[in-house]
Amino acid sequence: MLADLLSEGYDTDLEESWENERTATPVRAFAVRLHQTGCSLRETTTILAELVVESSHGAVWNWVHRLADSERDPPTATPSRVAVDETAVKINGEWSWLYAAIDIDTKLILDVALFSRHGTDPAAAFLHGLREKHDLSEAEFLVDQFGYRTALARLGLDGRVDYTDRNLVEKWFYTFKIRVDRFHNSWVGSRESAREWIEQFVYYYNY
User: Fold this and answer.
1) How far is the C-alpha of 126 from the C-alpha of 200, rounded, in Å?
2) How many CB atoms lie within 10 A of CB 116?
3) What's the rounded Cα separation, in Å, for the pair 39 and 51?
């Protein structure tokens, strides 16, 4: 059975998240992974149907959000090199700025945050939050020219301008935007709903 084939590849901690569900937990975990890595709800249910598993769009949507509510704490790191950058995203027709930091050596997304504008102050706020979550005592930040060196100096963090290794975070933004653009060019919903979706995307990307 499909559930038996998938049972070796899922986290048994998920069982508690989906009590009283008829569909086997490995199948639900597989469906959530399909959706979070790029498949639409329709595509996910079509794939499940090909595997002789009947499910509705609403069921898959509920599985995704039920799992999100029970996610484990994000991993912590002690990175030696961190790439930081920001990119514009549109929410309800208005531009916001998504900041991200990635551990260059492990490829782990260390943190993301949405701001209504970009510049030195948002960069400093993002770096401050990042420092609260990870040990950055040995980290060197690779940044571009736009406000980051001033922000790093404010916080006493080490960094330098880099346009080579730092490309890793730009590649992640490219992956992120491909995922978003498959369904909409602009979020229709609150900034908080966009933030929750982005955090889920990062969670599945890291794991």
Assistant:
1) 18
2) 11
3) 16
Tokens (6 digits) for 156:
């006493």
Q: Count H helices, E strands: the chain?
A: 8, 5
* pLDDT digits 0-9 by tens, 67-113: 655 555 667 788 999 999 999 988 888 899 999 999 999 999 999 99
Which tokens sit at 2? Answer: 């499909």
Q: Which of 150, 141, 6 is nearest to 83 (CA)?
A: 141
| Neighbour tally for 51: CB within 10 Å | 14
pLDDT in tens, 112-170: 999 999 999 999 999 999 999 999 999 999 998 778 999 999 999 999 999 888 888 99
Q: Which amino acid is at 6?
A: L
Q: How is the chain split into domains, by residue range?
A: 2-68, 81-206
Model-level pTM greater than 0.85?
no
Answer for the pair 197, 190: CB distance below 8 angstroms, yes or no: no
Residue 192 binned pLDDT confidence (cut-offs 50, 70, 90): confident
Which residue, 56, 84, 73, 80, is CA-closest to 149? 84
Q: Is domain 81-206 annotated with CATH 1.25.40.10?
A: no
